[in-house]
TrEMBL record:
Belongs to the GSP E family. Gene3D superfamilies: 3.30.450.90, P-loop containing nucleotide triphosphate hydrolases. It comes from Kineococcus xinjiangensis. This is Twitching motility protein PilT. Pfam families: T2SSE. GO terms for molecular function: ATP binding; ATP hydrolysis activity. PANTHER family: TWITCHING MOTILITY PROTEIN PILT, TYPE IV PILUS ATPASE PILU. SMART domains: AAA. Residues 202-216 form the Bacterial type II secretion system protein E domain.
Amino acid sequence: MTLLDTGSALAISPFLQALVQLRGSDLHLKAGSPPRVRIDGRLRALQSPALTPVDTELMLEEILRADLREQFARTNEADFAYSPDGGGRFRVNAFRQRGTVAMVLRRVSVSAIALRDLGVPAVLEQLSLEPRGLLLVTGPTGSGKTTTLAGMIDHINSTRESHIVTIEDPIEVMHSDKLSMINQREVRLDTQDFATALRAAMRQDPDVILVGEMRDEETVKAALSASETGHFVMSTLHTIDAAETISRIIDFFPPHEQKQIRLALAGALRGIVCQRLVPRADGQGRCVVMEICVNTGRIAEAISDPEKTHHITDLIKEGGFYAMQTFDQHLVALVRDGVVTLEDAQHAASNPHDLLVELRRLGLVA
């Protein structure tokens, strides 16, 4: 990997420059180990001496906002965004491990990337222009949920005259007003928490509300309420597919409330976009694989009836007319087009055996 100027080892900027130059996604800093950069999913060590506890302490002091220093001293945790003078933007999680400071810095886009440039299915443009309801983008950490949502917000911003309110922790992608007006609020900097900001947003005449993450019952309830009262609400969850997403939302609530929540969700939901990143066959980074669920009458029935919820994946598989697709259906198309290899597709598939059977049926593999 790139050799850094060890004379600047106490400053964080050379490591951030290496992250950008190597087109990595995350920078890991830890005392007792050389810095590491995640490139296309792999964690690679930089050619640099191991950091000392003093190094990591000074690096955090260099970038930590003054208003978060007391919090970090008290809780040993801090989440914030950092924009160095030289350009770029990074989402930072700072924490203590074995008594020393450690950090993970994720490189994020300074501005949104258009949906068409992201190479995502065209149905995402349609879903982003829903006049009301709830849209969820889900997937594991690092699967590109923020990038997808930023692209959808940018599509609204470029297409409709709307008021968009975002509630994020922290703000990652900066949006400029185009046809829409966008107010971006950061938890702990501009507002106390997601639920408080969501309640306040209802008095801010919004058309679209972006909630960075659904973390608890109160936030889910407020988001559902907003989507039922004529607003378009977008949010994320750390779930692997549409069926698990439905179950996770319902499980936020005690049993005696779950029937009501099922009915509310069945009525408010507009779609679920689940995503994973898979290495490209040409070695040029990774591509996004998506499961897309559009809330049709049959999907709504499966949400409201707990006896039918397990049919959601099958309904998505049969929902091509509505632009729905499962992960494995998308992977079949990517293997067919030579975008991903069979090995990587099987590794990412929900059901590797069924994926292989389908590829053989189509004559794409022996």
